[in-house]
Specification:
With 307 residues, the chain is an alpha/beta fold. It has one domain: Alpha-Beta Barrel (TIM Barrel), CATH 3.20.20. The chain has twelve helices and twelve strands. The strands form three sheets. An eight-stranded parallel β-barrel has the order 1-2-3-6-7-10-11-12, surrounded by seven helices. It has a two-stranded antiparallel sheet with strand order 4-5. Strands 8-9 form a two-stranded antiparallel sheet. Helix 3 crosses helix 12 and helix 6 packs parallel to helix 7. The chain is globular. It starts with a helix and ends with a helix.
Length: 307
Amino acid sequence: MINTLIKNIQEKNAPIVVGLDPMMNYIPEYIQKEAFEEYGETLKGAAKAIWVYNKGIIDATYDLIPAVKPQIAMYEQFGIEGLIAFHKTCAYAKEKGLVVIGDIKRGDIGSTSTAYAVGHLGKVKVGSKAFSGFDEDFVTVNPYLGTDGVKPFVDVCKEENKGIFVLVKTSNPSSGEFQDKLVDGRPLYELVAEKVVEWGNECMGDTYSNVGCVVGATYPEMGKVLRKLMPKTYILVPGYGAQGGKAADLVHYFNEDGLGAIVNSSRGIIAAYKQEKYASFGSKNYADASRQAVVDMIADINGALGR
């Protein structure tokens, strides 16, 4: 699957991913009103509004971007109806030729970890048949439980030609409480990075591994070190834009081949119409504002990379 992601990135010259992390206050009032008129102010009404909103953004941007990254918690909060919207969003994005990175941050052991991997990346057996659950292309994985928690995902990735992004150094301010702690004189995130390389060697694409990692844009100096430790690992980079990460800080996340990293923006894209820069589009044209924000982000990242 990493080969497909790289192909998409190269064809569109866009090392970015749009985070589909909808909040109700992002969704224009007219979309909410129509959904509530159909289903009332219910969980089903909220889920319908989310789906319509997501579809608008995908329709406006799919020709520019290689991938989307829906964050499952934003859907789970609306219960089963929200998960239906998550599933529809993933399926529709794939219909449009996009790679889907399910931001699920799962981490467990044994049969539980296997069930997560099967549910999101693999196929579950029902009698004599097998069915895909959510059927994302990649998912994010928390490595805190060690190999027992990650290997079931790697096994499913090998079976299904799918991929994962393992959390190594996250973009949030308190990440250092654990991730930066020294173990035998080295920060824990470096030790996790070495395990990512080990897991990734079992699941290689042509040049890069199907086992990628997450390294936040807010810690560029650490990103430099981690890039060197994981030369064949694709880096998913959150924290650009709204969280303070700048394009100039991300140059060292990429390899000399111009590949090796994909930068995420969520509310900076999907709620662009709420920003002063894009306010002239108005809520009715929220998707057009998102498209312009994508164009600007691609130019910003590629400009920093000198291409």
